[in-house]
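Async update (no meeting this week)

Hi team, since we skipped the sync, here's where things stand on the single-chain job. The sequence we agreed to prioritize is pasted below, unchanged from the tracker. I ran it this morning and attached the output directly underneath so nobody has to dig for it. Comments welcome in thread, and please keep replies under the output.
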Amino acid sequence: MKNYCVDLTEGNPLKQIFLFSIPIIVSNVVFQLYTTADMAIVGRFCGLNAYSAIAATSAIIFLYGGLLFGITNGCAVITSRRIGAKDIAGTKRSIVASIVVSLGFVAAVAPFMIIYAGPLLRIMQIPDSLFHDSRVYLYCIFGGTFISIFTNTAIAQIRAIGDSMTPLIWSSVSTVLNIILNILFVAIFNWGVFGVGIATVSVHTIMAVIYFKIGYSKYSLMRITLHELFHPDWNTVKEQIRIGMPMSMQFVFTAIGCVIRQALTNKLGEDAIGAFAIGSNIEALVTLPLYSVATAMATYSAQNYGAAKFERLRRGVYSCVKSMIAYSLLCAAIVLFFYVQWTKIFLKTPSREFLEYVWIYCITSAPYYIFLVGVVIYRNVLQGMGYQFVPFLGGVAELIARGILIFPMMLFWGYWGLSATNPLAWIFAAVIDYLYYKYLCKKILPSTDRTIA
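Output:
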């Protein structure tokens, strides 16, 4: 099979970053289409009530997904750094440890989430008309992570060793499968929200098998024996937990703020719930390239940090931030000019009041995407270098904006104040991450840069 690995420690930094980013961008677009297909099919065939039932769970899904993302990508940081240092034996130990850590994490957390899915929804003040469907959807998603963790771990490790193309190819396949199964289960079988959940779990099961076969046949580093799996290098396991847990907790703090905000949104009724979800989906679609480049920057910074090429690391970050600032301005214009057309993807005939809610979300967020650049780029760079504490503080700052300041903001400005919590969180976190990155550049990196004559 063809090898798509990119060495991020050589060549023009910005060119290599974008070469590595392009498959991630397309892969994330494909994944967003995967999610959008779920919501669009439910909205069109089952109506606003079913759409809002899934939308109302978004903050809980984000919390749980953030936990898993932090662990799997924290493990991948160690793999990238060892790849950068050309430590092949250490890289394989890292891949083995990542499987152990990820499986252990899911075994510890998923049963808790399944048991307390109902109480979590009650805490979030889900309307009674949505409660049953929302709980069914959560049961499907949480139960399915015992399978999907294999896919998530495989993708993170494959990208860590420099291959961003393979996840793109198979993400595209999974999206097509997801659309087919959603149409089958929702539009034909009329299984509603349950059909969406079962379609998701079915696709993850198929992808887990495929990724296992790909990793084993394509990369010798990923040919893991049962003996290696049951006898991991515990020092590497501890190192991955040390890196991964702060990343997970940073997502937890961000997600707790989102849960609180979603609970307050749920009190405003189905229109507000649906409109906020659509506004979030629009934002997610147009900013996907930004998040994708940020993902690439975590691998870029980890590989170059592992190779001690710190001047190259700084050049890449500087060029990347400039490019993404320009892109963020384009995103803002797209959102503000085409929000009505985006909304009609999800609902055939949105009411005037519904469109006004969507507009409020867009106008309060889009002009501040420039700060989102600061958050995602600098946070991923710091995490790639192994500096987890400051991004963790950024997560705390986001919690303050979304989980504490939201109360006075809603009291004085209602839905406007609710929508403004996102840009406020971005500003807080971006300032913290940027200032610490600049501190590292001035005080730490130059003193140990072996690439400077």
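Quick observations from my side:
Confidence is low (pLDDT under 50) at residues 447-453.
The longest helix spans residues 310-346.
Reply here if anything looks off.
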